[in-house]
Amino acid sequence: MKQLFAAATLALVLCSTAFSAAAQKRRPMNEEERLRWRTEMRNYKHEFLAKELELTREQQREFFPLYDEMDDAIERINTETRELEREVSTKADASDVELEAAARAVFSQKQAESEVEQSYFDRFKQVLKPRQLLQLRQTERRFTQRLMRHHNRARNQAAEK
Question: Ramachandran region of residue 94, left (φ > 0), alpha (ψ -120 to 50) or beta?
């Protein structure tokens, strides 16, 4: 029964992702659509992580607010870096100092993300068992791989039509 629910949830999320991707080709998502999509993806990721890491209800209640805080902080870093890169790269009269500073920010992005992740490690350690903590990164990668496989299938199906 749980597998059926998970499969149905996956199908629903992936279909909505495909529709969002198709709609995005026609026009960019507005803020409301982007928020809805992000919420759906976050909920699906929560379900995936909870199942794969075998989190108890108590662990879920404590872990996901922390995980979402970390995810939001990383998203802010990514957004700020992309905005700086876009702003400086499109500026025709950007000085070498501005270009170098933007390049440094781009090259330092992963380090900044890592620092955020490391700052949450001890907090996660208070909630997750050592095995769950170790499996977290691998489970995140599997989640991303699953989304990419679905995206590629949806893109290939759209190209066939």
Answer: beta
Residue 140 burial class via C-beta count within 10 angstroms: exposed 0-12, middle 13-18, buried 19 and up? middle
Per-residue pLDDT of the chain (161 residues; tens, 9 = 90+): 444 334 434 444 455 554 555 444 567 889 899 899 999 999 999 999 999 999 999 999 999 999 999 999 999 999 999 999 999 989 889 999 999 999 999 999 999 999 999 999 999 999 999 999 999 999 999 999 999 998 888 888 877 77
* All structural domains of the chain with their residue ranges: 1-55+135-161
- How far is residue 102's CA from residue 84's CA, in Å, rounded to a whole number? 6
Using left for φ > 0, alpha for ψ between -120 and 50, and beta otherwise, residue 82 falls in alpha
Measured CA to CA, the distance from residue 133 to residue 128 in angstroms comes to 6
